């Protein structure tokens, strides 16, 4: 049967959260056999996300885990904000290991942030992943697209400008891992204090080698995911008018 795509999405409360999640839900609705694991960066599951998932017609599981303020790197440190989402992804990986035993289901695990843009073809590219598959990511690393250069399904070099010395110079959105690899490797996890840009390389180094990577998206020549970022909405006229439309739900 068709392998399941487990998509792990950390998310946090902010003005544009529901807009971003709505766009993502309505993309994922077009994908078969997808299980969306949403991990809220909060003390408890928020009513907004609970209600949202009830309406979103995608199979989902709602988890939560707060990034403890005390354990954030010191203010001004470079990795203070960049590694947010790391603990939440680990919670989802632990949930997978608690929920499934190797061999239970055929599947693939993907880390998809809530404000990226996804072509639904991306999910068909990753669906059949033996170990770890890889492809380019638009607008990552200060390039129109950053990613591997591939030949005959294998990675031969990298198109990368930022910190090119990294073993796997790839964005979070640029790879997927077979579910059984996650289930049989307890060290498949992210270091919340890892150096900026080294989260992905460290994660992948524990699981595979560059030689083993499976090149997708037409030998890595196509872009099916973009690292778009939602601008903070400007609501400076709020408070100047008496009535308000309910936006908390
Ligand atoms: N995120 C989170 N907690 C935070 C900040 C971000 O859970 O405090 C989530 C966010 O919703 C997204 C992912 O982590 O799914 C990456 O964050 P963001 O998109 O802000 O990072 P960037 O686009 O700058 O890499
Ligand atoms: Mn983002």
From TrEMBL:
Protein name, per record: Galactosylgalactosylxylosylprotein 3-beta-glucuronosyltransferase
Broad class of enzyme this protein falls into: transferase
Catalytic activity reported: 3-O-(beta-D-galactosyl-(1->3)-beta-D-galactosyl-(1->4)-beta-D-xylosyl)-L-seryl-[protein] + UDP-alpha-D-glucuronate = 3-O-(beta-D-GlcA-(1->3)-beta-D-Gal-(1->3)-beta-D-Gal-(1->4)-beta-D-Xyl)-L-seryl-[protein] + UDP + H(+)
Location(s), subcellular: Golgi apparatus membrane; Membrane
Signal peptide segment: none
Protein topology in the membrane: Single-pass type II membrane protein
Species the sequence originates in: Amphimedon queenslandica (Sponge)
Sequence positions that bind Mn(2+): 115
Enzyme Commission (EC) number: 2.4.1.135
Superkingdom of this protein's organism: Eukaryota
Location (main, coarse): Golgi
Residue(s) at site: Interaction with galactose moiety of substrate glycoprotein: 146, 237
Single GO BP term: carbohydrate metabolic process
Molecular function as annotated in GO: galactosylgalactosylxylosylprotein 3-beta-glucuronosyltransferase activity; metal ion binding
Residues carrying a glycan: 219
Pathway: Protein modification; protein glycosylation
Cofactor: Mn(2+)
Coverage span on the entire protein: 51 to 299 of 299
